[in-house]
Write a structure and sequence with these properties.
CATH architecture of one domain: Beta Barrel
CATH topology of one domain: OB fold (Dihydrolipoamide Acetyltransferase, E2P)
Structural class: mainly beta
Helix content: 10-25%
Distance between the termini: 75 Å
Strand order of the largest sheet: 1-2-3-5-4
Radius of gyration: 24 Å
Order of helices and strands: HEEEEEH
Shape: elongated
């Protein structure tokens, strides 16, 4: 009877309840740096940090956050912007899932000063 019970419980072999647990979902990696190039037609963003530079493909549902708003567009990013990118590189190519542009200037900065900064930015590659 003990042998039958052990067989029913899967003791001595890997039964369905003793199988390895499913792998944990992959956590997105984070890259913090400065935007060096944006290619609107290829939908890529290049950035550099102290540790090196990377170019990221943007996933189709990539969220771009600017000024705490999640309705940003790729065209809202400019070379020189400080960003934090959450990305996945499981396919061998870094694919950005979320880009957060760090705020520029202080909260008390005048809108005219912010506009003058935008006008002084270099044009994007297209």
């Amino acid at each position: 009877m003990a042998v039958a019970l052990m067989a029913a419980l899967g003791v001595g072999r890997r039964g369905p309840f003793l199988a390895d647990p499913p792998p944990a979902p992959r956590r997105a990696k984070t890259f913090t740096g400065i935007v060096t190039d944006i290619n609107l037609s290829d939908k890529t963003v290049s950035a550099r940090s102290f540790f090196g530079a990377k170019t990221f493909n943007l996933e189709s549902d990539c969220e771009i956050v600017r000024d705490r708003r999640t309705d940003g567009k790729l065209s809202d990013l400019h070379p020189g912007d400080a960003v934090v990118l959450n990305y996945d590189d499981s396919s061998g190519v870094p694919a950005a899932k979320r880009i957060v542009r760090e705020s520029r200037g202080s909260a008390t900065e005048s809108p005219a000063a912010a506009n003058s900064q935008d006008e002084a930015r270099p044009a994007l590659n297209s």
